[in-house]
Amino acid sequence: MKAVLITQPGAPEVLKLQEYAEPKPGDDEVLIKVKAAGLNRADVAQRQGNYPPPPGAPVDVPGMEVSGVVTECGIAVTMWKPGDEVCALIAGGGYAEYVAVKEGQCLPVPGGISLADAAGLPETIFTVWSNVFQRGSLQPGENLLVHGGSSGIGITAIQLAHAFGSRVFVTVGSEDKGKACLELGANKYINYRTQDFEQELKSEGVDVILDMIGGAYFSKNINILNPGGRLVYINFMKGKMAELDLAKLMQKRLLVTGSTLRGREYGYKKALAEEILLRVWPLFESGEFKPVTYKTFSFNEAAEAHMLMESSDHIGKIILVNENFR
Ligand SMILES: NC(=O)c1ccc[n+]([C@@H]2O[C@H](COP(=O)([O-])OP(=O)(O)OC[C@H]3O[C@@H](n4cnc5c(N)ncnc54)[C@H](OP(=O)(O)O)[C@@H]3O)[C@@H](O)[C@H]2O)c1
What pLDDT, in 10s, does the model give residues 192-217? Predict the structure, then answer.
């Protein structure tokens, strides 16, 4: 099969479509013929040599989510059969014509959603569900702040929080991105290049914050949280060290937490998939959640796709499509 390889750590040009060994499904795995693979910011860090995948995942083929058709099932597989269209959360190796994945990390392609769009669903939905709704316990009527509102994570968090009855604030780097977030259900955007989100939101009060920025945002987040507020970290793009005012933590009874999804055990991911199928998948049918695909590229344009992600010009997801898929 062909796969997009990180031929050496470096700039986007190190990504090359080459021959690669086809994976064999284990007893509880399905083999997926890949139609499309979603890009995630972590793929960029992996390509640069800054983010080794967890044990068992290929180090030289990026890709944490795919869509496609099941072509083979291990002997213990009960959930799927050959011919089923699925999208799947994987720990790596998604930029490839075939992927082997445990059956419980697959979800059916939602009705009316194309295979290409479905490839961009798993990573952000699993991440947002586990961090905003489980870890952050966002409740209907509460206010959520999402930093990076136009990111793949942001467009997912906005739609889910809106659908479940929360008010959503976002930070963005341009007016166009802010307007796109409003169209997806956000109530207010703060252009972080021209406005200070702490000033803009201190009178609103925020119950849950999903932050991928870190650094100087930390103390501002602490300042605008309501009593009982929850601050959830999924990355620290602008710095991992921060100073915490313990008095504010205690006086407002705040919770500061965070998580990474990629290295979590199978049982956790399977349980998450089951909850998402019950709670999120109906939102596709009701029209309350839709994929936001900014641009698709073919597998041999993976370098261009990474350049676009690094430019941050995109709103929503960037998808690689396997043009050999039949
Ligand atoms: N912990 C986990 O399990 C987990 C799982 C998935 C993703 N993540 C993390 O979630 C983040 C988003 O991932 P993605 O794949 O959705 O990436 P992405 O689409 O590339 O999004 C990155 C976003 O960061 C925004 N940004 C940059 N500087 C900012 C600032 N100072 N203030 C506010 N926003 C800023 C960019 O918006 P502008 O262009 O407007 O600046 C862009 O929308 C990444 O950091 C990723 O590592 C974590």
Answer: 999 999 999 999 999 999 999 999 99
